[in-house]
């Protein structure tokens, strides 16, 4: 029997989930087809630019999924399942205050953490956990009922968890066990045919559609699966031309004349899906739920802590200007003659482009020089330099070192909440006079018994490692300005 390493398991897992989700949500298949078309066209028009943030093979194969669970126990089990595929928890996202609608969840994302593993297959799963102890959304009685309901179910069977543990310990599995792991793991995220308790689901839905999707059923499922596209604005336009209704806004940074940074996301609207309901009198009958949708993303350069602070400032300024002028400036596209796509012409997009043009460097070199973006460094061709200590900026300016942008591999709370909110069936309820429940990266790590990595530390390590390798190859030391986390 042959051995299947974790990265090959991960790639196979992503493919199987994609096939399963495409069968369940046919519009997702259309989304993948259009994404591939856009990527092919962009790569043909600008081959070098298309691969600036990853090979075209990586970009076209890339996916991120999203699931939702109900408790720390379930999240800890998720960590075991995804750990089998070489995916670790990275980042903490609090969506409870990031949306106007009721979204009572905190989240992390499971993904590979090293450059080599990300290049092999960068599959990620954004994983949200319900917070029934948050009294802004759940009174004590309902919160206790939710906790009891979640405690009574088992999302992942013992065989799956045992195989996952074995894969973690061995860095992979023999092919028979690998096949069984893939079969069980894919099945665990398949939409269940079990009837939904109508009254219980609708009770939770009045609080939050997200809460109902998590604790109103006895299983979990892929909530959305997301391809990566090189031009999200063109994809948005082509999807609408095919008659698929997209949400009103592309979430995240605007399209502008500078480098792509962080993450832009959009989706088609959640569709009615037939489900079987169990009613109070014991009868069963057909119904529909609207919880799953198709998301697509475009990834840019990772921003440093200073860059993220700048990003937050730009968001705040955009909000301030929109409050003062809800119609926004009368500007049609990124440069006045860009593609006339509906999502580009919204007041928010027009306002954000104006704010960004004034507040962020419009070149990669500007991001690097101001310490706003994360870059790794390689030695330029035929580079020769005398020994001793040299400034990083001088080495880059002289072509001795070449700055390569580091792709943003993570997520944005406000964007994630915006996608969730735009696909909800209702606003839900929130009582701001009640106290919330404190969560942060450290507490969530403690609750699930697994260390959740700080993404900024991972980006910083990539930069540091690249500089150390370059210095060793050139036989010099490199003087840099420190770029660290906020702590």
Automatic annotation (TrEMBL):
<keyword id="KW-0408">Iron</keyword>
<feature type="compositionally biased region" description="Low complexity">
    <location>
        <begin position="325"/>
        <end position="338"/>
    </location>
</feature>
<protein>
    <recommendedName>
        <fullName>2-oxoadipate dioxygenase/decarboxylase</fullName>
        <ecNumber>1.13.11.93</ecNumber>
    </recommendedName>
</protein>
<comment type="similarity">
    <text>Belongs to the 2-oxoadipate dioxygenase/decarboxylase family.</text>
</comment>
<dbReference type="InterPro" id="IPR047869">
    <property type="entry name" value="YdcJ_bac-like"/>
</dbReference>
<keyword id="KW-0560">Oxidoreductase</keyword>
<dbReference type="InterPro" id="IPR009770">
    <property type="entry name" value="HGLS"/>
</dbReference>
<feature type="region of interest" description="Disordered">
    <location>
        <begin position="320"/>
        <end position="349"/>
    </location>
</feature>
<dbReference type="GO" id="GO:0051213">
    <property type="term" value="F:dioxygenase activity"/>
</dbReference>
<keyword id="KW-0223">Dioxygenase</keyword>
<dbReference type="Pfam" id="PF07063">
    <property type="entry name" value="HGLS"/>
</dbReference>
